Amino acid sequence: MKLKSAILLQEIRNSLVELEFYGYIIFCDKNKNIHSYGETQRYPFFHRSCAKPLQASIIQDLRTKDYYNLSEKEIAVCCASHTGEPVHLEILRGILKKANLTEKDLLCPAIEPLNKEEQKKFEVYSPLHNNCSGKHTLMLAICRQMGWDTKNYLDINHPLQQMIYKKIQTLCEEETELPATLDGCGAPIWATSLEGLTRGFYNLFCTEEYPDIKNSIQHNPYLIGGKDRPDTQIMELNQDLIAKAGAGGILCITNTRTKEVLTVKLTAADMRARSIIAIETMIKLDWINKNKTDINLLDKALNKKVLTETNRQVGEYVLCDAVGEWIKNLKQTV
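Below the sequence we write its predicted structure tokens.
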């Protein structure tokens, strides 16, 4: 099947187009109707780290929060792609202790933390430094709670992974079998249509069925990412928003006040371009009001300037006019 992505953003240098960024924008309105920019053909894309809140949602069914007396901060880190800062690692160690586990039980690789300042502090990294260690910690804790084997919890046929699979299938309202692969951290990951992923975030954050996940993320934006991470930056711009970014150019944002969801998927995984597209779209949707937002936070998150190495501006990133027209028409129909 040939994909038909749409041009979303251009990098302009001295009035000339130097780079173009293609992808898709999916919008789910409060009535759960889907609106798409770019022809997705309902092609399946892997969720990558956008799956983490969906994966964690099984704690609502298993009453894991009550079993371990998990705090909102602990649940938030389990949904995070964190930067490996002390605040993240301390919370994770506490969860492991509650479950009578140690970091040696984690099967995610020991890699450098995303926070560059933290990278300089260690010669040898721990699995806890892995940005996915929160997800792995929760998976292990659930296995301990349920009496499941903790040695092979990443096996796709493990009861934990099968339960997660069925939960994602249900939340995303996908009836067909979902393609599978391994995420960067070694955990199984599944693919759905972008429309399905967007519905999954609607069902998770725009209903009253998963309050523990929703409140934990919404009340702890820094724990979901950390310093200079897009999820954290977006949530700091508006406390009504829940954001989760993933590798492969994907980003899901829920407006819990309007009960709407926005998914951005770039065909090339440029984090800066993805953030600009998402934030510019949210401004046009009135999710972010420039007059009511901390201008310093907005300038840092919405970094549109093209600079030389001497910080001289020679251009900027520009959202394509057709995207603006699509959003304008969208606002008239929802």
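The chain has a mean pLDDT of 96.
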